[in-house]
Amino acid sequence: MQRLLESPQFRRSPKLQRFLELISDYHFQNRADEINEFLIATEAFGKGPTFDPSQDSLVRVQAREVRRRLREHYQTDGKGSRLILDIPLGHYIPSFTVVEDHQPAKPPRFFKASWIMLGVTALVCILALFLTDRERRQLLGASAMAAARTTPGQTPLLSRFWNRFLESDVPTLLVLSNPDVGECKPSAPAPDGTTRMVASDGSPCPDEFTGMGEAVALHLVTNLFKSAKQTLIVKQSRMVNADDVKRYNLILLGGKSVNSWTRRLGSDLSLEQPEADLAQRYATVFDQKTNELIRDRAIIALRKHASTGHWLLFLYGKHSQGTQAAAEASSDERFLSQLKWPPPAAPFPESFRILVGVSVNDGIPQDPLPAAVRVP
Asked: Which of 60, 80, 98 is the last residue of a domain?
């Protein structure tokens, strides 16, 4: 166990080390039947008594990562291990398996030399055919896997952009905005002084919505995590709290000022008052005859949380179409290849923001273009 904790796969991951130590200690003390998600969350990850496994997948996400690193360890540094630790799917009780060496049986002495040679030759031929067939199957499988990996999430620039989240030990929470409906306004004060949100005709209206752009963006981001076999947690912005900000990497989709906690995370980001030289490509424009949106602006921004060190990604536009454009641009290798990074910044440093301009046709954003790239 000590060699495993000091292996390259675990020595820099204290949370995963605590996970392994906890379940192994309970196993060695014959208390394996007490191991469950609540125990691991509270004793290994420091969660409080209010932890609810049905609402929080932290333990399941970390267990999957532990299994992956165990497989990697026994395929590399621990290849010659005589004792194999595994955590079977479906529970968190560790399993220790001893690898035994099996000596090949000696051929009976009463065989004549000629029969022995004939048997050896036949076995060699069979083995050669078996290995050839296995190699063919592996090559076919590798080709199929390579074809399957030819997805947007595996292209070079996308990997550099998204691997901060896809390869992180910290789970990612996508915050889906549901901001106030712009057409709703406070009513005239009632006799008791209270007001309510009403539409232009005076009828009641909802105080929140999620646009089509945010829905499409959610689909795009979810597919990236699915292709990488990583869990993505989704919450409405109004449900996000301080503990979420401390616990997760965050992707803020559709806005940054729709929650008292998330509002603090990007106070310096703004879609207003762009630089004069970007006004044409970065302005929001409506058709004067139809009042339809024909151009929008958006922002893609990445940074680390100053206190937790977790990653923060902002994807939002002036309108719902801009949010969709920001998500499409961040998952498009062609768009990312057009970015011109100011020297000496390398592509996708730890903190940057990208201003995006996009044309809109019949309510659908088309061909987002980078208007500017800014680094601190």
From this structure: 98
What does the block give as tokens for 324? 């969709």
Residue 185 and residue 329 share a domain: yes
Q: Are 63 and 86 in contact (CB under 8 A)?
A: no
Q: Of 315, 180, 197, 181, nearest to 238 (Cα)?
A: 180
Q: Where are the alpha helices (DSSP H) in the chain?
A: 2-5, 14-28, 37-43, 58-75, 113-149, 156-166, 212-227, 242-247, 279-282, 320-330, 333-337
Q: How far apart are CA 155 and CA 264, in angstroms?
A: 33
Planar angle of CA 31, 32, 34, nearest 5 degrees = 75
What's the mean pLDDT in 187-193?
79
Q: What is the rounded distance in angstroms from the CA atom of residue 81 to the CA atom of residue 74?
A: 7
Largest CA distance in the chain: 112
Asked if residues 325 and 331 have their Cβ atoms less than 8 Å apart, the reply is: no
Residue 145 lies in a domain: no
Identify the burial level of 370 via C-beta atoms within 10 angstroms of its C-beta, where 0-12 means exposed, 13-18 middle and 19 or more buried: middle
Strands 285-286 and 364-374: unpaired
208 and 346 share one domain: yes
240 with 175: CB under 8 angstroms?
yes
Contact 270, 374 (CB under 8 A): no
Is residue 66 located within the same domain as residue 162? no
- Count other Cβ atoms within 10 Å, centred on residue 133: 10
Whole-model pTM above 0.70?
no
Q: How many domains does the chain fold into?
A: 2
Q: State the virtual CA torsion across 35, 40, 43, 49 in degrees, nearest 10.
A: -100
Neighbours of 112 (CB within 10 A): 8
Question: From CA 259, how far away is CA 176, in angstroms rounded?
Answer: 11
Rounded CA-CA distance 157/330 in Å is 10
Query: Dihedrals φ, ψ of 298, to 5°?
Result: -150, 175
259-317 per-position pLDDT tens digit:
556 667 776 777 765 555 665 667 788 888 888 888 888 889 999 988 889 999 999 88
In terms of domains, do 46 and 185 share one? no
Residue range(s) defining the domain that contains residue 232 = 156-374
